């Protein structure tokens, strides 16, 4: 018999060591599985071999219902937790060769299709112009924003970059920027002139100031005010601050620029397969959601501009 908590620890170790999952992914799985283990304990289940399909489906229902001070989770959060539980039980079935997976038939709740938010070009320009390029923090934020929109990178991919990862690309436009996405999957993306200039200005005029504040200087490209590696949360705050300064919606975050990157490429005639490669999507199906955005945009333009559209 195997203790549920011990099995969860083993699964998380597997994700980190063997699957190469990101710290962000592992953190999400850890939170979801801690809630799952607590639910099972309340049901009197302490061993993984005791878990039945009805326990897993009961957990999914539990997440969708308010209880005490806890509000019901959103469908997206329930879906994420369900995936975590299914992955956990799949791992246990293979690792322990039990041959049974109580979560195999439990599907996450269906979510309403949500199109990712993309900014129009004028708002992207306002956002890129917002940082004060006369200050070290402003030069860093400008470099961050230009990289986000110019490469379509995830914020975790950019905060993981070291100076050596980009120095050669600043001098040679033919060289692409190497990024490591989900599961450490590598891809090469072009680095445009605006991003190269913003990063170059930051490296010359701002990074030396910021690194001088570090107690232990490191190789990170993007630095915080103390000279350490910029965190995902600090990067989000930088984008949020630029949006506020540009008088844009305050729900704009790093992923908004990734969505805008993809949408504007497709609007400009890029092939969806090319956009897939640039974004690092494993399946073109994920990328095709952006084609729906451009179709909606075309319809709006038609209805607005054509005299016989309505």
Write the layout of secondary structure elements.
Elements (H helix, E strand, L loop, with lengths): L3 H14 L5 H20 L10 H11 L11 H21 L25 H9 L6 H16 L3 H5 L7 H5 L5 E4 L5 E4 L3 H13 L1 H5 L20 H14 L8 H14 L4 H8 L4 H4 L1 H17 L5
Antiparallel strand pairs: 1-2
CATH architecture of the largest domain: Orthogonal Bundle
Q: How many strand units? A: 2
Low-confidence stretches: none
Mean pLDDT: 87
Strand order of the largest sheet: 1-2
How large, in whole angstroms, is the Cα Rg? 23 Å
**Helix-and-strand structural type:** mainly alpha
| Number of discrete domains | 2
Encode the helix/strand succession as letters: HHHHHHHHEEHHHHHHH
Estimate what percentage of residues fall within beta strands: under 5%
Terminus-to-terminus distance: 68 Å
Shape: globular
CATH homologous superfamily label of the largest domain: Intergrase catalytic core
> How many strands, what sense, and barrel or not for the largest sheet?
2 strands, antiparallel
Find the CATH topology of the largest domain.
hpI Integrase, Chain A
Q: Oligomerization state of this entry?
A: single chain
